Amino acid sequence: MVGAGVGGLAAAARLAAAGHVVTVCEQAPQLGGKLGWYSRDGFSFDTGPSLLTMPEVFEELFTATGGALADSVELRRLDPIATYRFADGSGFAARAGDDDLRAELDDTLYAGAGAEWARFDAHAAKVWEVTRDSFLSGPMSAGRLLRLAAAHPGGIGAVTAGRTLRGVAARYLGDDRLRMFVERYATYTGSDPRRAPAALAVIAHIERRYGGWYVPGGLYRLGEAIAQRARERKAEIRLDTPVMTISRGPGGRVDGVILADGGRLPADVVVANADAATVYGGLLAGSAGGRPGRWPGGRATPSLSGFALLLALGPPTDGPGAAGTSGPAGTGHHTVLFPADYDAEFDAVFRGRLPTDPTVYVSAPADPTLAPAGCEAWFVLVNAPPHDPGPGRAGIDWDRPGLVATYAARVLELMAARGLDVRDRLRWYEPISPADLERRTGTPGGSIYGSSSNGARAAFLRPANRTAVPGLFLVGGSSHPGGGLPLVALSARIVADLVGPA
């Protein structure tokens, strides 16, 4: 196993439970991959996902590998799931209950907004029913897409209605604010809502249907629990163990991995929980046994990356500008601050420029275990172009002197302008740039989801879990079925099924 992200750990647990001898090699000093963790001076932060959906996926994972999820991790349902604020000062809380959300939209946006949302969600529910089993239960291919269309000749129209996520949002929603709310779900796959397929409307429905959840103590605990389950099933996890090459023997079949220290681990099967571009362009490139195979990503657009700030905040101050989870800004567990010009943000990110007025996402968990008494640990994220310092680049050079500090100040200014001024409470901050993401996770450019879902079929035809190289499998967010904690865990189930029992 190459990589100890959530996908790799879940696959390790499943394969070890199926009787395989499993060794996981992780290049970083900690497990979790993009489900990262940072602690300093009594403050602790999730540095990757901060919201869990489809908890049933993880309940099934733990049950299948020998014990209940509840015995290892506590899940806490969030209500509201998030609070959304717009440039005109309006906003709403995404209440967990459907009736509560419709009433909230009518009360805070305009009369009839709740009914419009209900019609959109009914459409998204139909998309979910069409795609759920066929898309998530097994490996995807062009042939499987055609069979999906044949099996659901009426429902397939729902999948493609509006062609793009923006198109389907405009079809059902009559207000720019509700459309921005829906279009944000494109960023869950690192994509542009103007180019992402209409089928991504299903993400909004999934979040509503299965709820938004938090793990007390941080979502990183979920990764730790999966790792512990893998170890209980006798999988070995080696940290600080970079893999340089996936080696192949006669006929081109994988026969092991070569480590950075020159050592070699033989293997009948290799599961790579690394970015697919890294696997094809790097780990296979130096192996014997023939050509490494064609990179299946083709000309897919890299997904957007992110620029994050970890904010260590002291107790709220009195008077104007005070903010906090109970302050006048009404900060909840998750808060999204939209810009005035959403298109300008996507134009910048996907053209390799810094957005000057990006959407700001704030995760401010009311969790006393994450900060000293009276203090808070906030995770702030904005969409950003990937790290790409070369000529003709698709991103920018995030290592350019002064850029990170300047942009951090800009993000704090934007938060203040939008009602969340925490600068007088700021004890220190830790930035995480796309270049940092690339170094920490090995993802090219720090692109969070590998390739984007920009294009009519891109969401359905990510790199396959079973590669053209015999014995090599891909797991994780850059492969089918995509990024995000539940989909990554589902990719592990698909791979374990493909490999089969020992």
From TrEMBL:
<dbReference type="GO" id="GO:0016491">
    <property type="term" value="F:oxidoreductase activity"/>
</dbReference>
<dbReference type="InterPro" id="IPR036188">
    <property type="entry name" value="FAD/NAD-bd_sf"/>
</dbReference>
<keyword id="KW-0125">Carotenoid biosynthesis</keyword>
<keyword id="KW-0560">Oxidoreductase</keyword>
<protein>
    <submittedName>
        <fullName>Phytoene desaturase</fullName>
    </submittedName>
</protein>
<comment type="similarity">
    <text>Belongs to the carotenoid/retinoid oxidoreductase family.</text>
</comment>
<dbReference type="InterPro" id="IPR014105">
    <property type="entry name" value="Carotenoid/retinoid_OxRdtase"/>
</dbReference>
<dbReference type="GO" id="GO:0016117">
    <property type="term" value="P:carotenoid biosynthetic process"/>
</dbReference>
<dbReference type="InterPro" id="IPR002937">
    <property type="entry name" value="Amino_oxidase"/>
</dbReference>
<feature type="domain" description="Amine oxidase">
    <location>
        <begin position="7"/>
        <end position="278"/>
    </location>
</feature>
<comment type="pathway">
    <text>Carotenoid biosynthesis.</text>
</comment>
<dbReference type="Pfam" id="PF01593">
    <property type="entry name" value="Amino_oxidase"/>
</dbReference>
